């Protein structure tokens, strides 16, 4: 390694001497005094990996040290995280790919053992538990049982991976949610590691903990000063295999916090406010850094809540510095005194330590918020950035309802025969019609469902479950409600999904678990549940009631994602809210209510109860945190974090370096990416004679492209599974079948809510297939059409609007696109991770020129497309020619979004995994 600026120093701590690359030493060459915290972390990363320019050169260090806050990002640097965290939905396909690479590297002349994570890679199984059972004491046990039955093959495979790969650990199911486990246990904040030196010896080094995670909310760890963000599985695999990740030196937006949260508000209200402000500013591709005297009043848990939602505000990360509060949290969560001493000593030695009143850094732009101005809020009904003041909720619901009931048949709560005499069902004149209602019989009582009925109330998601203030706040509200004899309405599916075992313990210690249970909030599982779409089926009577009048019902969840179709296919409106508000809406049973003015329920004697009667004070919550949340809870629950329970330990799993694939498995399959691969590198060719597979509007999410939720019985994936003897009840979710490309490719673009404009915008994953013979176009499921095009030898393209690929990082959104035969996606703009994943899978991302899109160019998807001028990746632009059936043409220029030389290189190889494989195989051959 090089050390052009002579920055290697020794740090004495805990009686040891550790080598580190000193930023103050570099400060003798450059003025680093105004550099943001996050840029200093990037700089240290470069200093430690300087290798004469192969990956990091002197010029890269100079570029970051002389960072120009206002410059548009155009300088590429390498970043090598200290570790990787994975969750099981995205982690299983990573391990499948690693297993497939072991086979492939052997075929190319290498050795299977060359394929191992080179940095600590920790996978937390948290995304598979589903809320099948709720509202009863055995819900946790039964959901766990069903989870293991459904996922046995995947779990057996992961247990094989745990044994076969070095540097790879698995946190078993029923432990917690990945980001919360990361915060509470896995994060080191400062790493102490034995590192190989050039002379073959090794030395003990100290450096900042940095992390890539295969989940977009990896940013939660930014709350404790760890720089990291979500990447696609493809980038994570590369990082695990020791490949640097290329990035452009980002802009950094400073977010100044002052004041203190007022009485009656929560960290959830704060994060929804921050999200709305940052979305408005526009921070896509940027780092956000929080600073200001408000930090002193912001517990670590609140910081983590804010950091968690970086994907919702669109930033790469949302980071807080290391300070005394970070150390308090490390102590609270049971980290060793030696680790805490290392964090403090290193942060102080490096100028990464934050003291109140410290001089402010220079930022690319700044925003500020007085915490005292935050008001109780929700966000929805379908985007996390659409904050709604609690006092405006009823109006918001009704405004949004209007658009959702246009053309709905009026039933008005009576049987159709009741009004046949009058002409039967007529299209409803929306707001003029009487409100429909469905009578249902549930829990031995009659009830009525309406538009706005809350059918799911879920305390869920690491965003909030990591935060004792909102969890204990929910418990206290439940206690106050239970004392008055209130309950959740019978049609509400109530669930409590604690983010870790610690949460249940402090709720129990505070005596609040019973109160939550009285309201119907029994623990349903330790995992993502509703936030990822694992909300499970609604009771049959509720489903029927919704269908009977095509009701627009709602969910209220303490999660961070509420895209259409995400939470539950039968629920069109989804509001994000703090856990206490989730409990309140469960009691009210409707979002068609103003909780600031109307009573949410009445007691048995008819006394109205208002939200303000139930809401606990900040002091009450603070006192309870002090009394119940202590290091012993963390120590107890994390002592054997990788061990797992009996169910986990009884899973049989194969042995051996290479995985023995089971051809009959519908969960785990050797993917076809490396079939027929040789050592020869390809080139980036122009695309001719392509057909349009989809013409989409704005904000197509990765969930639209590759849904994680239910597999429909009559979908291509559903038909495939049934043909292999899998009954619909055992379909499980797409997310759980990401280890099987046969299922996943059939699910690509199969979201029931995706609208293909080629079909006039109707919902469902269909398209028009144009046969080579010129027959009339045929409406087919996208997978079926893609396979016909494949048989015809016709490449495919996708056209889309703004923010294509927004939402959770999801490598299958790129893998499935590739396997369908899509060669290029032309969009107005791309979400950062999805663009990079497309590149990683050999699908070309192209961008319309500003002001242009498929509509302004008059494209309807019937055209034949050619894309020329790619010049083997050397050109920044390409020419698209769309030929219509009548022979006329539309010609336009697009930007080629291969952003770095390394990306061009990956693309030539056919993708990042092919690139890595050839490097490793060549090393072996040499
Ligand atoms: S709870 Fe939600 S945000 Fe957290 S990891 Fe799970 S899906 Fe992601």
UniProtKB/TrEMBL annotation:
SUPFAM superfamilies: Aconitase iron-sulfur domain, LeuD/IlvD-like. It catalyses: citrate = D-threo-isocitrate. This is Aconitate hydratase. Pathway: Carbohydrate metabolism; tricarboxylic acid cycle; isocitrate from oxaloacetate: step 2/2. It comes from Lysobacter daejeonensis GH1-9. The keyword Iron applies. Residues 67-589 form the Aconitase/3-isopropylmalate dehydratase large subunit alpha/beta/alpha domain. The keyword Plastid does not apply. Its cofactor is [4Fe-4S] cluster. Keywords: 4Fe-4S, Iron, Iron-sulfur, Lyase, Metal-binding. InterPro entries: AcnA_IRP_Swivel, Acnase/IPM_dHydase_lsu_aba_1/3, Acoase/IPM_deHydtase_lsu_aba, Aconitase/3IPM_dehydase_swvl, Aconitase/IRP2, Aconitase_4Fe-4S_BS, Aconitase_4Fe-4S_dom, AconitaseA/IPMdHydase_ssu_swvl. Belongs to the aconitase/IPM isomerase family. One of its GO terms (molecular function) is aconitate hydratase activity. The lineage of its organism: Bacteria, Pseudomonadati, Pseudomonadota, Gammaproteobacteria, Lysobacterales. Catalyzes the isomerization of citrate to isocitrate via cis-aconitate. Residues 719-850 form the Aconitase A/isopropylmalate dehydratase small subunit swivel domain. One of its GO terms (biological process) is tricarboxylic acid cycle. It is an enzyme of class 4 (lyase). Its EC number is 4.2.1.3.
């Amino acid at each position: 390694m090089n050390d052009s600026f002579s920055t290697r120093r020794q740090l004495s701590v805990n009686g040891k001497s550790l080598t580190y690359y000193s930023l103050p030493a570099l400060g003798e060459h450059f003025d680093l005094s105004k550099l943001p915290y996050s840029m200093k972390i990037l700089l240290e990363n470069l200093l430690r990996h300087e290798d004469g320019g192969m990956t990091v050169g002197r010029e890269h260090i100079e570029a970051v040290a002389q960072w120009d806050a206002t410059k548009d990002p155009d300088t590429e640097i390498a970043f090598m995280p200290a570790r990787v965290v994975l969750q099981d939905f995205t982690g299983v396909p990573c391990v499948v790919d690693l297993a497939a690479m072991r086979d492939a590297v052997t075929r190319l002349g290498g050795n299977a053992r060359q394929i191992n994570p080179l940095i600590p890679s920790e996978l937390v199984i948290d995304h598979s538990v589903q809320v099948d059972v709720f509202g009863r004491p055995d819900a946790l046990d039964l959901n766990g049982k069903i989870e293991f039955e459904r996922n046995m093959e995947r779990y057996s495979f992961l247990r094989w991976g745990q044994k076969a790969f070095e540097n790879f650990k698995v946190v078993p199911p029923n432990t917690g949610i990945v980001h919360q486990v990361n915060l509470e246990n896995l994060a080191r904040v400062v790493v102490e590691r034995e590192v190989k030196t050039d002379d073959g010896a090794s030395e003990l080094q100290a450096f900042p903990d940095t992390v890539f995670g295969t989940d977009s909310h990896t940013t939660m760890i930014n709350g404790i000063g760890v720089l990291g963000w979500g990447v696609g599985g493809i980038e994570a695999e590369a990082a695990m295999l020791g490949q640097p990740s290329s990035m452009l030196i980002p802009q950094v937006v400073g977010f100044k916090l002052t004041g203190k949260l007022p009485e009656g508000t929560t960290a959830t209200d704060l994060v929804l406010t921050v999200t709305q402000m940052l979305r408005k500013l526009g921070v896509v591709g940027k780092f956000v850094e929080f600073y200001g005297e408000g930090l002193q009043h912001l517990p670590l848990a609140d910081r983590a809540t804010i950091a968690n939602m970086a994907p919702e505000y669109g930033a790469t990360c949302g980071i807080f510095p290391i300070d005394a509060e970070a150390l308090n949290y490390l102590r609270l969560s049971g980290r060793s005194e030696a680790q805490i001493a290392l964090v403090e000593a290193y942060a102080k030695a490096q100028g990464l330590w934050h003291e109140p009143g410290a001089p402010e850094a220079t930022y690319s732009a700044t925003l500020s918020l007085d915490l005292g101005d935050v008001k109780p809020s929700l966000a929805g009904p379908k985007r996390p950035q659409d904050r709604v003041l609690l006092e405006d909720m009823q109006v918001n619901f009704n405004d949004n309802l209007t658009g959702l009931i246009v053309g709905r048949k009026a039933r008005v709560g009576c049987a159709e025969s009741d009004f046949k005499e009058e002409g039967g069902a007529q299209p409803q004149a929306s707001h003029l019609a009487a409100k429909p209602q469905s009578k249902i019989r549930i829990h031995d009582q009659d009830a009525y469902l309406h538009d706005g009925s809350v059918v799911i109330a879920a305390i869920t998601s690491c965003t909030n479950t990591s935060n004792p203030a909102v969890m204990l706040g929910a418990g206290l509200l439940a206690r106050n409600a239970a004392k008055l004899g209130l309950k959740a309405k019978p049609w509400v599916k109530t669930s409590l999904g604690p983010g870790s075992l610690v949460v249940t313990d402090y709720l129990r210690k505070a005596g609040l678990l019973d109160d939550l249970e009285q309201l119907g909030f029994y623990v349903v599982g330790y995992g993502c549940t509703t936030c990822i779409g694992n909300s499970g089926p609604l009771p049959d009577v509720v489903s029927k009631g919704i269908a009977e009048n095509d009701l627009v019902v709602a969910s209220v969840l303490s999660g961070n994602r509420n895209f259409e179709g995400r939470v539950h296919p039968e629920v069109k409106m989804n509001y994000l809210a703090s856990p206490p508000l989730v409990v309140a809406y469960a009691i009210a049973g409707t979002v068609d209510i103003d909780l600031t003015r109307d009573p949410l329920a009445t007691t048995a004697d008819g006394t109205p109860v208002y939200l303000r009667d139930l809401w606990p004070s900040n002091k009450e919550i603070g006192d309870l945190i002090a009394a119940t949340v202590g290091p012993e809870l963390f120590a107890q629950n994390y002592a054997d974090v990788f061990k797992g329970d009996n169910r986990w330990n009884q899973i049989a799993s194969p042995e051996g370096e290479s995985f023995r694939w089971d051809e009959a498995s519908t969960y785990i399959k050797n993917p076809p990416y490396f079939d027929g691969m040789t050592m020869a590198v390809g080139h980036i060719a122009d695309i001719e004679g392509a057909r349009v597979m989809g013409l989409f509007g704005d904000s197509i999410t990765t969930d639209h492209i590759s849904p994680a939720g239910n597999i429909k019985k009559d979908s291509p994936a559903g038909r495939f599974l049934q043909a292999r003897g899998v009954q619909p009840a055992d379909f499980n979710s797409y997310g759980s079948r990401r280890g099987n490309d046969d299922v996943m490719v059939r699910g690509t673009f199969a979201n029931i809510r995706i609208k293909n404009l080629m079909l006039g915008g109707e919902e469902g994953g269909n398209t028009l297939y144009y046969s080579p013979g010129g027959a009339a176009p045929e409406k087919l499921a996208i997978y079926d059409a893609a396979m016909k095009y494949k048989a015809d030898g016709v490449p495919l393209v996708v056209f889309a609007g703004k923010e294509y690929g927004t939402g959770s990082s999801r490598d299958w959104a790129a893998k499935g696109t590739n396997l369908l035969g899509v060669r290029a996606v032309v969009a107005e703009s791309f979400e950062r991770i999805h663009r990079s994943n497309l590149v990683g899978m050999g699908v070309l991302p192209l961008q319309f020129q500003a002001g242009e899109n498929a509509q302004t160019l008059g494209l309807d998807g019937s055209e034949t497309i050619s894309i020329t001028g790619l010049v083997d990746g050397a050109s920044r632009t390409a020419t698209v020619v769309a030929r219509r059936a009548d022979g006329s043409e539309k010609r336009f220029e697009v930007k080629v979004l291969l952003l770095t030389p390394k990306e061009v290189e990956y693309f030539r190889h056919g993708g990042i995994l092919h690139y890595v494989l050839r490097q490793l195989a060549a090393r072996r051959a040499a």
